[in-house]
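Case study 2.
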Amino acid sequence: MKRIILQSGQERRLLAGHPWVFDNEVKSILGPEGPAMLEPGELVDVESSRKTYIGRAFANPHSKIVARIFSPSKEGVDKGFFKARFRSAVERRRGTYNLETESERLVFAEADLLPGLIIDRFVGWPALQAEPFILEKNRAGERVTFETVQAALGVPGVWLSVQFLSYGLDVRKDLIFAALDEVIGPVQGIIERDESQVRSLEGLPQVSGLLRGTYPDGGICMFENGLPFIADLMEGQKTGHFLDQRDNRRRLARYVSEKQVLDMCCHTGGFAIHGARYGAASVLAADISNQALEAVRRNAELNGVADKVTVETGDVFELLRTYERNHMQFDVIILDPPAFTKSHKALEGAIRGYKEINLRALNLLSRGGVLVTCSCSQAMTEGRFKAMIQEAAMDAEKRLHMLEFGYQAPDHPILVGYEESLYLKCGIYRVL
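Prediction:
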């Protein structure tokens, strides 16, 4: 087994739980017979400059992250290893989610001690079967539940949407799928969504498509917080549906009754549909993607709120400027933009972007209005995010109460010592 020896003083962060070894932290690489070169994806032991053992890692000399630590002990990596990791991930989620009825992130990469591996597990039915049934119930004035659909269409199927964002896991796909088969049982299909730029940094190609099984035309119908949604696991962003916002969407129930709601960067309508179902008088859902807005329309019909939800296509910055010029006012505004930066190098520019949209949103809110503002940029820490909101409020000459502050849902666990795992921030503020 090859060993990575760190530069003096570089071990503190790793001993505190951070799993990444950067290339500029490495003093030397030793094999059994002396200096050695790393091979992409191989196992390697990481030691301090004093030869103190730190952990076992997947290596990749092509990446700035030259090693990703997955264990503090000298574990082997075989099918049994992955089975144990998957069983632990399932058990951690079992107390929070009903795995028979709810979709969830089954594996969250480093936070589940599987560096670079993301697996979202979707539970539902082919949309072309479920959608007509639900629409018929809506026309009859009946509210549809998961149990209603199950009684009509039978036991739901399971689809996995996966991302391999590290070399060490990508080259072990066969072991991973064999372990999944034994731990979670058969699934209808496995979809790979590896279009991320992270793969290029790892020396891996960007790919996507159906890896195993089948996937229905028209997507699938799943339930979130008791509401039906169409999710397209093949064409939607990331793994097909943003499961991380489910708890923050549920918080809308406290604020939207009989209100005029604006949902910016709405994607497929997660916040917009929750707002309408929770009693909003009207919801304007805006996004730059026409494909996403078509999904909003579809989900609004599915939830019986098409009369409340309108959509508009456009860039978030331009639309907010237009609304401001037209002196439009809203009671609740939701800002859930894509990550404005993936790195600390571009953070200052990203902060200016976040500040602008928050400032304009504050100008559009009526007195007593509520701002629900989010950032999914890892580089934007909670402290910087809250400071940015405070600065936007100062420039807008508004005073705010912070009503709630949320993070990603617990199936996207936050690993202490690995600050990158805390990426989603969601602040809810009232204008005084």
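The chain has three domains: 2-71, 79-221, 242-431.
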